[in-house]
Amino acid sequence: MSYPPSPLSVSSCHDRIDLYLIKRGLPLSRSRIQKLIEEEQIQVNGRPIKPSYRVRKGDQIDFSIPGPKPLELVPEDIPLEVLFEDEQLLVINKAAGMVVHPAPGHRSGTLVHALLYHCKNMSGIGGRERPGIVHRLDKETSGVMVVAKTDLAHQLLSKQFKQHSIERTYLAVVCGVFPKKLGQVVLPIGRDRVDRKKISARTTKPREATTHFVVKEKFRMATLLLVYPQTGRTHQIRVHMAHLGHPIVGDKSYGGKAARSFEMEIGRQMLHAETLGFTHPTRGDRMVFSSLPPADMLDLLDRLRLRET
């Protein structure tokens, strides 16, 4: 962890301690910091404090951040829609609602658990808790993903993602009507300074992010876009669309008032990874895979079209 060693001396400030530590660069969410305070892992002047404590000049903050507990990954017989498989890799159509890898609140039922059942010999590839995972899709995002089955495939596929040579096309239903037929967003993003669970342009560590889009179909209250992310930052498409004032329909985190006031009932964010193209890591040939949008997105599009008649 790149953070000043404990204790930390306060020069001048009257912020709540959780906000103060975030401003000083502690890479934790406010809720996580508050939990550590309740567990007395963070103390001021050698004494336990309340999460509402406001730091003062001269305070000495001592903290002890426990390392992550290793997860015990048990293979689970979860159905996977396999689009392609050979000895090096696996291409799947991820269902909306499936979490890619274990995380707090999602200790089972993830894509990783399903992969360990489907592929018997990949437990060490790509790390102990994310075996085979080269890239990921958000829980509510459906669509095409590639998974590495060997260390070589993981290394060479990861290199393609890093070099931005992967071909990716998303379908996104966004709020409102776009005035232009195509466009792009160039907006560096990173972990939000205050809300560590979100990504935004309001960050201390901005990373280059570019998204291209083309209008595929317009409706009275929404637009269907083909989206081509040039870079692959976390939540990039969702943040960029919200930045344009056209958040993705159903996006509870970045949708704001526009998504909340959308007239039709939506169960998730309407984002689908339609196409994924890459170079096979050992054969060297170009491979492109596509999947149709899931039933809930098709149903929304049908309802939007009915309103046009």
Quick recap of the structure?
This protein is α+β, with helices and mostly antiparallel strands.
State the main characteristics.
Structural Genomics Hypothetical 15.5 Kd Protein In mrcA-pckA Intergenic Region, Chain A; 20% helix; Pseudouridine synthase; nine-stranded mixed β-sheet; four-stranded antiparallel β-sheet; 3 domains; 309 residues; alpha+beta
Please explain how this structure is put together.
With 309 residues, this protein is an alpha+beta fold. The protein folds into three domains: 8-63, Structural Genomics Hypothetical 15.5 Kd Protein In mrcA-pckA Intergenic Region, Chain A (Roll), CATH 3.10.290; 73-163, Pseudouridine synthase; 166-309, Pseudouridine synthase, CATH 3.30.2350. The chain has seven helices and 15 strands. The strands form three sheets. Strands 5, 6, 7, 8, 9, 12, 13, 14 and 15 form a nine-stranded mixed beta sheet that branches. A four-stranded antiparallel beta sheet has the order 1-4-2-3. It has a two-stranded antiparallel sheet with strand order 10-11. β12 (210-218) and β13 form a beta hairpin. α1 (17-23) packs across α2. 34% of the residues are buried.
